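Lab channel / #folding
Pinned by the channel admin:
"Please post every new chain as: sequence first, then the structure tokens as a reply. Keep commentary short and put observations after the output so the thread stays searchable."

First post following the new format, from NK:
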Amino acid sequence: MAFMQLDLFISNNQEQGLIKNLLPKDGVVEIYPAFFTKEESESLFNHLLNEIEWQQDSMKFYGKQVNLPRLTAWYGESMKQYSYSGIDMNVKPWTEELLFIKNRIEKNSGLKFTSVLLNFYRDGNDSVSWHRDNEKVLRVNPVIASVSFGATRTFKFRHIDDHSLVRMFVLMKGETQHKWEHTIPKTSRQVDQRIGLTFRILF
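Reply from TO:
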């Protein structure tokens, strides 16, 4: 299996510019280091931790209902409901801080995002399994803008055909959601809390 490691996951204080497409084929992934200052990151993390209405979702796994190994929340425009893996997400209105993050991303990308899915990884036991964000409501070649606050966690990509593997912090564009799966795996290392946001455009 081909393997490439890029330790650029979620450090907000790296002094380097935009790194263009890190995927070797079939998609576009861009990294934006130092997207928020240290002070902004700490303030935003505290808001997300304490003010977001986190929920514990569950799904059927081999006929048994099990809790997802993370907490989630869905915010955005009032009519933009979202479902994945049989889980219906009820939309909540934007907070001032979420709009601050959203506006920064939109100014940088030139796109307008309608919604955001938030994931709260409480420790190394929390994770998200291999998946693609390719629901029909996102349409063809969706752009997913991902930003994270808190502890560093590994972010991996795996091509659906040859399983070539890439680890990175990302902005996902082009064919990425159709050709590459991604995951944040569990870890036995002692890690602190992490909050990840993935901004989406629902139609």
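NK: Residues 38-51 form the longest helix (14 residues).
TO: also worth noting, The two ends are 37 Å apart (CA to CA).
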